[in-house]
Amino acid sequence: MNIALIIILGFLLLAVFLGIRATKGKEMDLEQWTVGGRGFSSIFVFLLMAGEIYTTFSFLGGSGWAYGKGAPALYVLMYICLSYVTSYWLLPAIWRYAKEHRLVSQSDFFVKKYNSPYLGVLVALVGVIGMIPVIVVQLKGLGIIVSQASYGAVSMQAAVWMGAIALTIYVMLSGVHGSAWTAFIKDIVMVVVICFLGIYLPLHYYGGFQPMFEAVHAANPGLLKFPDEGNSVTWVISTVLLLVLGFYMWPQVFSSTYTAKNERVFRKNAIISPLYTLMLVFVVFVGTAAILTVPGLEGEDVDLALLRLSLDTFDPWVVGVIGGAGLLTALVPGSLLMMSTSTLLAKNIFHVFAPKSSEQTVGKLARLLVPFVALVAVYFTLHGGTTLSNIILMGYSLMTQLAPSLLFSLWKGNFINKYGAGAGIIAGLATVAYITTSHMTLADLFTFLPATWNDVNTGIIALVINCIVMIAVSLATRKSQRAAAA
Amino acid sequence: MKRLYFLTILPFIGMLGFLPFVNRVEPFVLSMPFVMFWIVLWAVLSSVILAVMYKLDPRNKEDEEK
Question: Is residue A198 predicted with pLDDT exceeding 90?
Fold first, then answer.
């Protein structure tokens, strides 16, 4: 065992210690446990949401794309920034309704708005299916970090299993309060490490930022702007719009808005949050610095760029600190996601079909489901070979399908009913599944469109079909309801 | 919906709408390729726009008194 692994293990033990300590002397009802009694101030809500949004993906996936694809990696910064812009009016609206009706989960929101527990089940299912890929990303990240920091002593497979076991134990012992505490430390360590790497590496290897970009530009012209085909300008615009729609649809993000003590919290946080996304610029710097210094990584190996370059540059103890920071960015969101997934399965799915079960049974079941969720995630981690960025994009195209019925429900004159909302979501999911398996592009459907339209994110098609079905079914069932009444 | 909230469209127009016209490497600004600089610039302007909205929004004063 080398010094890097020992330091990473130290970070893990610290996280577990904080997690267990945070739960001491707290016996809480559901509203306290999940939404902190709706009493969180600006800073806490900010940290909680940042804890969920900046994951190992921002660390390894962002630098991986900057290394492998160049400028298109900037899409991460763009969609997070623009999502924060919409939060100014979207989150207060969600919060107000949730407080009025004392809601605790995202699917409660749909149940109440559309007055249908079964729509809640559907929304919970979408949430579970969408969150599994994000858990996979965290496990993959953990695996990469541990296997790289061991200098090859631990295989990727063994590292993924170890990561999954550590995550499961952590979640079962600590609960949401542990995550909130670790989230605080995680954000500090992460910002410091990323800024350090983003500044040090370009200076060390190229003598400055501009010399670095000039060298990369000379070696590979075209990498530093959006290409004409593939991840082109059309791709980035459509993808960013889609991701912004999906951003607040994630169950764990959605319900963390409930923790705020008033609406002003969101408007205040909206101002500083776009500046916080600038941290991702440093991630892009790291990926760019790796292009000429650790050449030859291809396919899913681009996600290794940041760690490979760190291994080449620093002493093992620095690698240990970087790995430890990476571990925390996987552990915090990973634990929140595992908790949300198992809570959704127990409360919003199981409980609907077994309404007689007591709240304690549901709570117990939620905990028991954690290892099961971990196993499913390990299976997909070891069997799906694609980059972190692609997995995240897939999860987003699923979650975005909840956006139309949610946005309509916030509108006073909403004419969408539960049948329309349900049918729209199902139609959207079916389209995503079909497009993903058949690798269809927009040009296959509309052959008359100009070539620039080829790269439009196919998630848009699913979204359009979703909207059409939702509106059509709502209008049709409304008529038949009226006819039945007459 | 309040008229003030339409200001949130500006960052979308700036960051996404102008992208086809600024998708170039040179000139380098603040040591960054031009398209990267443009996106960073709009992230900063997003903050500025939201801060202005916050100042102008009477709702924030209501909450303060509560």
Answer: yes
Any A CB within 8 A of B8 CB: yes
Convert A34-66 to b/e letters by CB count within 10 Å (16 or more is b). bbbebebebebbbbbbbbbbbbbbbbbbbbbbb
Interface check for A219 against chain B (CB to CB < 8 A): the answer is no
pLDDT in tens, B7-53: 889 999 999 999 999 898 888 888 899 999 999 999 999 999 999 99
Tell me the chain B residues in contact with residue A87 when contact means C-beta distances shorter than 8 Å. Answer: none
- Write the residue in A264, A267, A278 that is nearest to B40 by C-beta: A278
A123 backbone φψ class: left, alpha, beta (φ>0; ψ -120 to 50) = alpha
Please give the Cα distance from A390 to A69 (Å, whole number): 12
Percentage with pLDDT > 70 across chain A: 89
The mean-pLDDT minimum among A19-23, A85-89, A338-342, A397-401 falls in A19-23
* Range scoring the smallest mean pLDDT among A52-66, A251-265, A381-395: A381-395
User: Which of B11, B20, B31 has its CB closest to that of A209?
Assistant: B31
pLDDT band at A442, cuts 50/70/90?
low
pLDDT-based confidence at residue A88 (cuts at 50, 70, 90): very high
Element holding A362 (H helix, E strand): helix A359-383
Q: Which of B39, B57, B64 is opposite residue A78, by nearest beta carbon?
A: B39
Question: Are residues A209 and B57, on separate chains, in Cβ contact within 8 Å?
Answer: no
> Which A residues in the span 229-248 are in contact with B, Cβ-Cβ below 8 Å?
233, 236-237, 240-241
CB pairs under 8 A between A and B: 114
Query: What is the DSSP secondary-structure string of A13-77?
Result: HHHHHHHHHHHTT----HHHHHHGGG-B-HHHHHHHHHHHHS-HIIIIIHHHHHHHTSGGGGHHH
B35 contact residues in A (CB cutoff 8 A): 71, 74, 224-226
What is the spatial distance between Cα A458 and Cα A451, in angstroms, rounded to a whole number?
15
B29 interfaces chain A, CB cutoff of 8 Å: no
Q: Does B57 sit within 8 Å of A81, measured CB to CB?
A: no
Domain boundaries A3-382, CATH class: mainly alpha
CB pair distance less than 8 Å for B63 and A262:
yes
pLDDT value of residue A437: 74
Question: Residue A233: is its pLDDT beyond 80?
Answer: yes
Domain ranges of chain A: 3-382
A270–B40 CB contact, under 8 Å: no
Q: Mean pLDDT, chain A, as a whole number?
A: 85
